[in-house]
Write a structure and sequence with these properties.
The chain has about 210 residues and is of the alpha/beta class. It contains six helices and nine strands, in the order ααββαβαβαββαβββ. The strands form two sheets. It has a seven-stranded mixed β-sheet. A hairpin with a 2-residue loop joins β1 and β2.
Length: about 210
């Protein structure tokens, strides 16, 4: 998997080391474990949610870690959409503090227990509407969203610190792009970097 990620442009050694260390098979149900390392594709985790393909996890993490204007590093990051907890674990390997919000309570509880079992003590999981972020612990040096929004939620922009970066899939099904939003002073500068396909970002609690 690591050689394939390098070929696809993942060059951050911190990200590659995290991907190599974390047992991806621990984040899916037993029936899907045989598929984890056979192909670079998303896998179902229940409740119409998916575990993103390794390349997308690596790309989003690498993009989040990149220096942006006024950036002083990524010490505190908010993840919207805990899902299986796999992306959360990758972030926890390279970020000092990770706050992760999931709107599906059962997924949130399973992921929290899984991350504790794997020894992650720098992750804080919450059950809430991800479109509202997690203002209590903000502002954040980085925010990563693992579901596609129709537009960038204003609440997330408000919780992004100066020099912070938001990485989010934007658009309707079959027409989504991965967008970077950098906060430069009081301005937000955005650009799209890749075509992607994610489940939709839903509002409210399930």
């Amino acid at each position: 998997m690591i050689d394939e990620l390098r070929k696809q442009g993942i060059a951050d050694e911190r990200v590659l080391a995290a991907m190599m260390k974390i047992p991806r098979h621990d984040f899916v149900e037993e029936a899907w474990r045989g598929e984890v390392y056979r192909s670079n594709k998303p896998l179902p985790i229940g409740l119409a949610q998916t575990l993103s393909q390794p390349y997308i996890v690596a790309l989003m993490t690498q993009t989040l870690l990149e220096a942006s204007p006024e950036s002083s590093g990524r010490r505190q990051v908010l993840e919207i959409g805990t899902g299986s907890g796999y992306q959360t674990a990758v972030l926890a390997e390279v970020i000092e503090r990770v706050y992760s919000v999931e709107r599906l309570k059962s997924l949130s509880e399973i992921a929290r227990k899984r991350l504790v079992t794997l020894g992650y003590r720098n992750v804080h999981c919450g059950y809430a509407d991800g479109t509202l972020g997690w203002a209590t612990h903000g502002p954040y040096d980085g925010i990563i969203v693992t579901a596609a929004a129709g537009d960038v939620p204003k609440a997330l922009l408000a919780q992004l610190d100066k020099g912070g970066r938001l990485v989010i899939p934007v658009g309707p099904p079959n027409n989504q792009t991965l967008r970077i939003v950098d906060r430069v002073g009081s301005r937000f500068v955005s650009r799209d970097i890749a075509v992607v396909s994610f489940v939709p970002l839903l509002e409210g609690k399930a």
